[in-house]
Write a structure and sequence with these properties.
Length: about 400
């Protein structure tokens, strides 16, 4: 058990501003609203934080996982943290506190415990996933990549302007895995005169490169011209990327991500559920499987892919050319002329028998990527399919999370 500690000592939770990519995951996840941000930093309020750890597993970079033993009266306040460019070093504690082992220091000493936190997906990777490298390059030490390709992958007559962008790293190491992401540092300054923060993008290529055997990777980027409410908005990084030309240089940080990883053991099955640019990691995993199609190592691939119309589906043409016995493709089109609206959760229910069959196999992993609003619909559909088969969804859901077989990457 933890030994009691004088109330003036605190294990303060801090976010590393050099690694943080300002993705807002921690603030959205925190159940007690202890995390806030401004245009510079994301920070933890020491007067609210109770060390529940809910924000730690979802963080893609590990910036959230920093702690300092502090005298409570000297704890770093919100305003001080907002002005940081880097984390401060350790402070010496008074003799009485310093004599105590770190394990005896509770995350908080006088705050009520939070409500139990339950993430919708796993916080660990599949058991057979390869070891990921993370945070090799930071805001202070970015990698320079060269643009070797930039292609629009949606119909030219559609509003959805999505690009497939290929970046080459030359002879410098940038090891990645399917399911990881990178950060792009757009040039220029923000409204406060500071350099723009990095924007995070999932990889659309497998571990051995967009072109097999080359030290490159690809991204799937949608040009942002309006916000979710339909109001005009200019996406700083998305427009920068979509306008890049061949041989342009790009500042890259990362890679990020240590849980949204594909399994490596033979005969592993994948259920992939995505919308729009959420197709990026699904393309990476599918291409990894395609390149070893003749090895006999592949399990089954079941894809649920949503968009408004066929011409707004990224990679629609190449996707349709894949062998039907290689991947089971199910398209959910919500605005296709002459067709009823269908969403990915509708197709999951329509394909209930196939989904149940795969869920019954411990070699199956599920990946969900797209807008955050799809989480509830997908979980409800998986629950309905499971209950219809006479199983208890709560038991299966817990097992999928515990075993690293249900993963969400939503934004």
């Amino acid at each position: 058990m933890n030994a009691p500690l004088p109330a003036e000592v605190l294990k303060q939770h801090l976010i590393d501003p050099e690694i943080c990519i300002r993705c807002n995951t921690c603030e959205e996840t925190c159940p007690i609203k202890a995390i806030t941000h401004d245009s510079n930093n994301y920070v933890v309020d020491p007067d609210i934080c109770n060390g529940c750890m809910a924000c730690v597993p979802p963080c893609p970079t590990g910036a959230i996982d920093n702690w300092r033993l502090m005298v409570r009266a000297e704890a770093y306040g919100v305003q001080e943290q907002l002005g940081w460019e880097e984390l401060p070093g350790e402070k010496a504690l008074p003799e009485m506190a310093a004599a105590l082992p770190a394990d005896d220091v509770p995350a908080a000493t006088d705050l009520a415990a939070p409500a139990p936190f339950s993430a919708p997906g796993a916080t660990v990777p599949p058991w057979s996933a390869a070891h990921p490298y993370v945070n090799l390059y930071t805001h202070k030490t970015p990698m320079t990549a060269t643009v070797v390709g930039n292609y629009r992958v949606t119909g030219a007559d559609t509003e959805s302007d999505i690009h497939h962008i290929v970046l080459d790293f030359g002879e410098l190491p940038f090891p990645v895995l399917e399911g990881q992401s990178i950060g792009i540092l757009p040039p220029g300054l923000d409204a406060q005169g500071r350099p723009h923060h990095a924007r995070q993008y999932s990889l659309a290529s497998p571990r051995d490169g967009e072109r097999a055997g080359y030290n490159n990777l690809s991204l799937t980027v949608k040009r942002v011209t309006e916000d979710h409410a339909g109001a005009a908005a200019h996406g700083v990084c998305s427009n920068y990327l979509c306008d890049l030309a061949k041989n342009d240089k790009v500042q890259v940080i990362g890679p990020f991500g240590h849980t949204f990883l594909m399994p490596n053991h033979p005969r592993a099955n994948l259920i992939m559920i995505c919308t729009g640019t959420g197709s990026a990691p699904m393309r990476a995993m599918t291409e990894r499987y395609r390149r070893r199609i003749d090895t006999g190592e592949n399990g089954r691939l079941l894809l649920f892919f949503g968009a408004r119309t066929e011409r707004e589906l990224p990679y629609f043409g190449p996707l349709m050319k894949l062998p039907r016995d290689f991947i089971d493709i199910n398209l959910a089109l919500s605005r296709e002329t002459g067709q009823p609206k269908r969403y990915v959760q509708d197709l999951i229910r329509e394909r209930a028998a196939s989904v149940r069959e795969l869920l019954a196999d411990r070699n199956t992993c599920i990946y969900v990527c797209g807008l955050k609003g799809m989480e509830v619909g997908v979980l409800d559909a998986l629950r309905d399919v499971t209950v219809q088969g006479g199983q208890d969804w709560s038991i299966l859901h817990d097992a999928l999370r515990r075993e690293g077989r249900l993963h969400f990457e939503t934004y």
